[in-house]
Amino acid sequence: MIRTLIIDDEPLARRAVRQSLAGFGDFEMVGEAGHGAEAVAAIGVLRPDLVFLDVQMPEMDGFGVIEAIGVDAMPLVVFVTAFDAYAVRAFESEALDYLLKPFDDQRFGRVIERVRRQIGTGDGQRDGQRDGMRSLLGGRGRLVARGDRATQLVRLDEIDWISAAGDYAEVHAGGRSLLIHEPLTSLETRLPQAAFARIHRAAIVRLDRLVEVRPGTHGDGVVRLACGAELRFSRRYREPIDVYLTR
């Protein structure tokens, strides 16, 4: 059973989530909370696996609850709110999903499936995935990237390649270049290995963007991507390219 806590200052909103959960037999309602301070106490006592968390609440908002508990100690979080303006901040807080009110059964069902997949990875893997949520945002596969003017969500399937930029990684996606405050080596561990490969100490590519491979004379060479970029690959990192070409 997935122990679930609902946190919202509106009784009707709590009832909507409670009624939606009633159709899923593997979720157990362990309690409700109507404001932030009550939520902090309830999480500490009830130790839920999952919380549906409102953003705007009296005394302490949803982000304040996460701050009070601590990101590493929080159960899985699904934000439930009528406002879409908090989406980026919610994902940066390592939320699993962001559910806009009013939601329908289909949207709620997708949330449930994401929760099941996350819980089903087992405690150890789950901890590792939650550690990665600062950059990889849930099963949908998105990155939080800071551009010159705003923080943006970038889908993994939009990315062409990623380059090292000191303590940052620069994401090249659809003609855009966006910075993620994370070194390339760390980011590499969070990307799906079947889709991305490091080809140089300073470059990661999305493999299905490869359109040409030109070998050099010492095991190195150059790849050309669908976006037109040409990048060098080193002998040390050639194997993923060879494996992809033989699929």
Walk me through this protein's architecture.
This protein has 247 residues and is an alpha/beta fold. It is built from 8 helices and 15 strands. The chain has helices at 11-21, 36-46, 62-69, 87-92, 105-119, 123-131, 184-188, 239-245, and strands at residues 2-7, 27-33, 50-53, 76-81, 97-100, 142-146, 151-155, 159-165, 168-173, 176-180, 196-200, 203-206, 210-215, 221-225, 230-233. The protein has a 5-stranded parallel beta sheet, with helices on both faces. It has a 5-stranded antiparallel beta sheet with strand order 10-9-8-12-11. The chain has a 3-stranded antiparallel beta sheet with strand order 13-14-15, with no helix packed on it. The longest helix has 15 residues, at 105-119. It is elongated, with a radius of gyration of 21 Å.
Could you provide a short overview of the structure?
This protein has 247 residues and is α/β, with parallel strands linked by helices. It has helices at residues 11-21, 36-46, 62-69, 87-92, 105-119, 123-131, 184-188, 239-245, and strands at residues 2-7, 27-33, 50-53, 76-81, 97-100, 142-146, 151-155, 159-165, 168-173, 176-180, 196-200, 203-206, 210-215, 221-225, 230-233.
Mean pLDDT: 83
Instruction: State the major sheet.
Output: 5 strands, parallel
Q: State which percent range the strand residues make up.
A: 25-35%
Task: Name the structural class.
Answer: alpha/beta
The unreliable regions are 121-140
Number of helices: 8
Q: How are helices and strands ordered from N to C?
A: EHEHEHEHEHHEEEEEHEEEEEH
Give the tally of β-strands: 15
How many angstroms does the end-to-end distance come to?
40 Å
Strand line-up in the sheet with most strands: 2-1-3-4-5
Helix content: 25-40%
Radius of gyration, rounded? 21 Å
Query: What is the molecular shape?
Result: elongated
